[in-house]
Amino acid sequence: MVSRVKPLKPRTAPRQPGFTVIELLVVLAALALLLSVAAPRYMQHLERARDTAMRHNLHEMRNAIDQFYSDQGRYPATLAELVERRYLRAIPLDPVTGRADTWQTVLPRSGNAEGEGVYDVHSGTKDLAPDGSLYATW
Protein backbone atom coordinates (compact mmCIF):
# COMPACT_ATOMS: atom_id res chain seq x y z
CA MET A 1 0.00 0.00 0.00
CA VAL A 2 1.32 3.22 -1.12
CA SER A 3 0.31 6.24 0.76
CA ARG A 4 0.12 9.42 -1.02
CA VAL A 5 1.25 12.40 0.91
CA LYS A 6 0.07 15.69 -0.23
CA PRO A 7 2.91 18.09 -0.75
CA LEU A 8 2.88 21.00 1.62
CA LYS A 9 2.07 24.37 0.19
CA PRO A 10 4.53 27.07 1.02
CA ARG A 11 3.10 29.45 3.50
CA THR A 12 2.69 32.95 2.23
CA ALA A 13 1.89 35.98 4.24
CA PRO A 14 -1.59 37.32 3.70
CA ARG A 15 -1.57 40.01 1.02
CA GLN A 16 -1.76 43.49 2.43
CA PRO A 17 -3.78 46.17 0.64
CA GLY A 18 -1.79 48.93 -1.03
CA PHE A 19 -0.19 50.08 -4.22
CA THR A 20 2.79 48.70 -6.00
CA VAL A 21 5.74 50.85 -6.95
CA ILE A 22 4.77 50.59 -10.60
CA GLU A 23 1.25 51.86 -9.90
CA LEU A 24 2.64 54.80 -7.93
CA LEU A 25 5.07 55.67 -10.73
CA VAL A 26 2.28 55.63 -13.32
CA VAL A 27 0.14 57.95 -11.19
CA LEU A 28 3.06 60.32 -10.56
CA ALA A 29 3.88 60.41 -14.29
CA ALA A 30 0.27 61.29 -15.08
CA LEU A 31 0.29 64.06 -12.47
CA ALA A 32 3.58 65.43 -13.85
CA LEU A 33 2.10 65.51 -17.35
CA LEU A 34 -1.00 67.38 -16.17
CA LEU A 35 1.10 69.89 -14.20
CA SER A 36 3.40 70.52 -17.15
CA VAL A 37 0.36 71.57 -19.16
CA ALA A 38 -1.43 73.51 -16.41
CA ALA A 39 1.46 75.44 -14.82
CA PRO A 40 2.30 77.68 -17.81
CA ARG A 41 -1.36 78.52 -18.34
CA TYR A 42 -1.68 79.40 -14.66
CA MET A 43 1.32 81.73 -14.86
CA GLN A 44 -0.15 83.44 -17.95
CA HIS A 45 -3.41 83.86 -16.08
CA LEU A 46 -1.60 85.51 -13.17
CA GLU A 47 0.15 87.96 -15.53
CA ARG A 48 -3.13 88.89 -17.21
CA ALA A 49 -4.79 89.39 -13.82
CA ARG A 50 -1.93 91.65 -12.70
CA ASP A 51 -2.18 93.68 -15.92
CA THR A 52 -5.94 94.03 -15.53
CA ALA A 53 -5.53 95.18 -11.94
CA MET A 54 -2.89 97.70 -13.04
CA ARG A 55 -5.17 99.16 -15.72
CA HIS A 56 -8.09 99.32 -13.29
CA ASN A 57 -6.04 101.02 -10.54
CA LEU A 58 -4.65 103.58 -12.99
CA HIS A 59 -8.12 104.28 -14.35
CA GLU A 60 -9.56 104.81 -10.87
CA MET A 61 -6.76 107.12 -9.75
CA ARG A 62 -6.90 109.15 -12.96
CA ASN A 63 -10.66 109.42 -12.63
CA ALA A 64 -10.27 110.63 -9.02
CA ILE A 65 -7.67 113.22 -10.13
CA ASP A 66 -10.06 114.50 -12.82
CA GLN A 67 -12.96 114.71 -10.35
CA PHE A 68 -10.76 116.53 -7.85
CA TYR A 69 -9.73 119.03 -10.54
CA SER A 70 -13.36 119.55 -11.57
CA ASP A 71 -14.46 120.18 -8.00
CA GLN A 72 -11.49 122.15 -6.64
CA GLY A 73 -10.18 123.92 -9.76
CA ARG A 74 -6.67 122.64 -9.05
CA TYR A 75 -4.83 119.37 -9.05
CA PRO A 76 -4.23 117.50 -5.78
CA ALA A 77 -0.86 118.16 -4.19
CA THR A 78 -0.31 114.45 -3.52
CA LEU A 79 -2.13 111.18 -3.95
CA ALA A 80 -2.71 111.22 -0.19
CA GLU A 81 -4.83 114.33 -0.63
CA LEU A 82 -7.21 112.30 -2.78
CA VAL A 83 -7.67 109.96 0.17
CA GLU A 84 -8.00 112.78 2.71
CA ARG A 85 -10.72 114.45 0.65
CA ARG A 86 -12.40 111.08 0.04
CA TYR A 87 -11.97 110.90 -3.70
CA LEU A 88 -10.32 107.52 -3.05
CA ARG A 89 -10.77 105.20 -0.09
CA ALA A 90 -7.09 104.35 -0.15
CA ILE A 91 -4.19 104.62 -2.54
CA PRO A 92 -4.34 101.34 -4.47
CA LEU A 93 -1.44 98.95 -4.60
CA ASP A 94 0.75 98.84 -7.65
CA PRO A 95 0.18 95.19 -8.67
CA VAL A 96 3.69 94.83 -10.09
CA THR A 97 5.58 96.17 -7.08
CA GLY A 98 2.98 95.17 -4.50
CA ARG A 99 3.26 98.55 -2.76
CA ALA A 100 1.16 101.73 -2.69
CA ASP A 101 4.09 104.13 -2.36
CA THR A 102 5.78 103.38 -5.69
CA TRP A 103 3.38 105.29 -7.94
CA GLN A 104 5.14 107.96 -10.01
CA THR A 105 3.23 111.23 -10.26
CA VAL A 106 3.35 113.60 -13.23
CA LEU A 107 3.19 117.36 -12.75
CA PRO A 108 0.78 119.43 -14.84
CA ARG A 109 2.09 120.98 -18.03
CA SER A 110 3.58 124.44 -17.75
CA GLY A 111 0.49 125.93 -19.47
CA ASN A 112 -1.37 125.55 -16.18
CA ALA A 113 -1.12 128.61 -13.95
CA GLU A 114 -0.64 126.44 -10.86
CA GLY A 115 2.11 124.19 -12.28
CA GLU A 116 1.93 122.03 -9.15
CA GLY A 117 0.10 118.96 -8.08
CA VAL A 118 -0.61 115.53 -9.47
CA TYR A 119 -1.71 115.68 -13.10
CA ASP A 120 -1.21 112.00 -13.93
CA VAL A 121 0.11 108.82 -12.36
CA HIS A 122 2.19 105.88 -13.64
CA SER A 123 3.58 102.69 -12.20
CA GLY A 124 6.91 103.00 -10.45
CA THR A 125 8.33 99.76 -11.82
CA LYS A 126 10.80 99.47 -14.65
CA ASP A 127 9.49 96.04 -15.70
CA LEU A 128 8.19 95.20 -19.14
CA ALA A 129 4.57 94.34 -19.74
CA PRO A 130 3.75 91.20 -21.76
CA ASP A 131 3.09 93.38 -24.82
CA GLY A 132 6.68 94.69 -24.66
CA SER A 133 5.88 98.17 -23.36
CA LEU A 134 7.06 99.51 -20.03
CA TYR A 135 4.52 99.48 -17.21
CA ALA A 136 5.75 103.00 -16.39
CA THR A 137 4.31 104.28 -19.69
CA TRP A 138 0.77 103.04 -19.10
Brief rundown of the structure:
The protein is mainly alpha-helical and 138 residues long.
How would the blueprint of this fold be written?
Blueprint: H1 21-72, H2 79-84, E1 104-106, E2 120-122
What does this structure look like?
The chain has 138 residues and is mostly helical. It has one domain. 42% of the residues lie in helices and 4% in strands. The chain has two helices and two strands. The chain has helices spanning 21-72, 79-84, and strands spanning 104-106, 120-122. Strands 1-2 form a two-stranded antiparallel sheet.
Query: How does the helix and strand content classify structurally?
Result: mainly alpha
Ends distance:
105 Å
Radius of gyration equals: 33 Å
How many helices? The count is 2
Helices and strands, in N-to-C order? HHEE
Q: Name the overall outline.
A: rod-shaped
